[in-house]
């Protein structure tokens, strides 16, 4: 093709047809420009197609991450609700309400020592954010919700650090010093009975008279109530993001 154009230009110059040569040259330039624009457009289409595939992959993985998080959040909300009830019952006993169910008290005390916290499955979002590819998410509403959810995760992490200190300082230390945890665990797991473990009310007497333990339980009831609300917020936002992604696909 280039040889043909060159031949035409040479023929026009030889025949001294300057006007036609200029018109031809302009036409040739226009054709070259059009060719470049078409090539750029095709290249842009290919880039857009590639980016769309990458976006779809990221969104699919985000949905998988969020579904795992929702399951974890449901489990943790159930744990927190049970712990909240159990911790309050122990506080009531420490305030003078008689113990009418020793088996329940044993399980509530063990449960008060359990340390379970939420760790999000946000590896896909972090990969997007850290690699500078967050702009691949074309839907701004989805992007903003993901950023809001990430802020909730950061707040949750800070709260966990505070709770962990209080838990270990007031509850864990007090319990480990004043009860035989080895005797309680089989009862908690349903493997043995209170009678088989020879556990009586006196087994808890020292622990139930410790102010630090009571203060720790009070802090945990306050924090658990806050965590339940935070988890509900995270779950609702996660479900909204999933719905929006599924509609956008």
- How much strand? under 5%
How many E-type strands?
0
| Quaternary structure state of the chains depicted | single chain
Fraction of helical residues: over 70%
Calculate Rg over CA atoms. Answer: 34 Å
Largest sheet: none
Mean pLDDT: 85
Helical segment count? 7
Report how far apart the termini are: 44 Å
Order of helices and strands: HHHHHHH
Shape: rod-shaped
- Low-confidence sequence ranges: none
SS-based structural class?
mainly alpha
Word description of this protein:
By secondary structure, the chain is mostly helical. Helices cover 78% and strands 0% of the residues. Helix 3 packs across helix 6. The longest helix is centred in the first third of the chain and has 77 residues. It is rod-shaped, with a radius of gyration of 34 Å.
List the helices and strands and how they pair.
Layout: H1 2-14, H2 18-94, H3 102-112, H4 123-130, H5 140-178, H6 181-188, H7 211-248
Helix pairs in contact: 1-2, 2-3, 2-4, 2-7, 3-6, 5-7
For the structure shown, list the relevant keywords.
249 residues, mainly alpha
Give a brief rundown of this model.
With 249 residues, the chain is mostly helical. The chain is 78% helix and 0% strand. The protein is rod-shaped, with a radius of gyration of 34 Å.
């Amino acid at each position: 093709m280039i040889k043909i154009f060159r031949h035409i230009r040479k023929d026009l110059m030889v025949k001294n047809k300057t006007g036609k040569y200029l018109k031809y040259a302009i036409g040739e330039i226009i054709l070259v420009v059009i060719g470049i624009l078409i090539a750029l457009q095709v290249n842009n289409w290919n880039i857009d197609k590639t980016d769309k595939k990458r976006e779809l992959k990221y969104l699919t993985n985000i949905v998988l991450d969020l579904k795992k998080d929702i399951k974890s959040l449901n489990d943790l909300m159930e744990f927190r609700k049970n712990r909240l009830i159990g911790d309050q019952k122990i506080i009531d006993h420490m305030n003078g309400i008689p113990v009418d169910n020793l088996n329940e008290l044993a399980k509530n005390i063990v449960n008060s020592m359990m340390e379970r916290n939420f760790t999000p499955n946000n590896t896909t979002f972090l990969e997007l954010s850290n690699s500078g590819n967050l702009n691949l998410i074309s839907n701004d509403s989805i992007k903003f919700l993901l950023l809001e959810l990430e802020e909730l995760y950061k707040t949750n992490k800070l709260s966990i650090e505070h709770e962990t200190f209080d838990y270990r300082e007031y509850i864990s230390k007090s319990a480990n010093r004043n009860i035989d945890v080895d005797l309680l665990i089989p009862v908690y797991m349903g493997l043995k009975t209170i009678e088989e473990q020879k556990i009586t009310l006196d087994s808890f007497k020292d622990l139930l008279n410790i102010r630090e333990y009571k203060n720790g339980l009070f802090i945990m009831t306050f924090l658990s109530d806050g965590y339940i609300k935070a988890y509900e917020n995270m779950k609702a936002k996660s479900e909204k993001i999933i719905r929006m992604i599924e509609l956008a696909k």
